[in-house]
Amino acid sequence: MAALTPSLAFAHSGGLHVHGLFAGLEHPLLGMDHLLAMVAVGMIGARAGGRSIALVPLFFVSAMVAGALLGMAGIGLPSLETGIALSLVVFGAMIGLARPLPLAAAAALTALFGLFHGNAHGLEIPESAGGIAYAAGFVLGTSMLHAIGVLSVLTLARWPTTVRTAGVATSLAGMAMAVQAF
To answer: What is residue 14's three-state secondary structure?
Structure first.
């Protein structure tokens, strides 16, 4: 039976896994959609350089928290899983571009998709103290993955084609997830 169900956003299996800080910390690591998106955001900031290294991830996390609050209030964004898949397509394209986008464009796009990622998390958070710990964990886990994205770009600075290829691969993964949505 499991083979017949789509595996759109692997991290969104319902609320059963939500138990506290460590569950929130591991959540971005367990879903390919979140893992790729979070690393990509760090890569986008690092490619733009300067203030973007900190501001692009900060805009994403801020929007993710706003989206989570909406979800906790019971407000789900329309086409949530499609929006998450589309984030991978867009983030991958942003990394794959020959030149990085300006800070305003990069921050706006990452914030837009941060709403979707956060909303998915917020819809899963229970109305208990464990939910607060879970939220703190997923913010910390997300920030750590952003840092991995930044460090990967800085480490691979001599091989920009490798970084851009990672962007194309991220877009392809997002396209595959989007196809499952239709």
So the answer is: coil
DSSP-derived secondary structure letter, 158: T
What's the token pair of residue 50? 């300067």
Tell me which amino acid residue 79 is.
Answer: S
Name the region of 76 (left: φ>0; alpha: ψ -120 to 50; beta: rest).
beta
* Chain segment 24-77, per-residue pLDDT in tens: 788 778 888 989 999 999 999 999 999 999 999 999 999 999 998 999 889 999
Q: pTM for this one?
A: 0.85
Say if residues 100 and 150 touch (Cβ distance below 8 Å): no
| DSSP secondary structure, 131-151, as one string | HHHHHHHHHHHHHHHHHHHHH
CA distance 72 to 66: 10
Q: Which two tokens stand for residue 17?
A: 């896994």
CA–CA separation, 112 vs 82, rounded Å? 13
pLDDT in tens, 116-173: 999 988 887 766 646 778 878 889 999 999 999 999 999 999 999 999 999 999 999 9
Amino acid at 10: F
d(CA 42, CA 144): 9
Which residues, 6 or more positions from 72, have their beta carbon under 8 angstroms from its beta carbon? 122, 123, 125, 127, 131
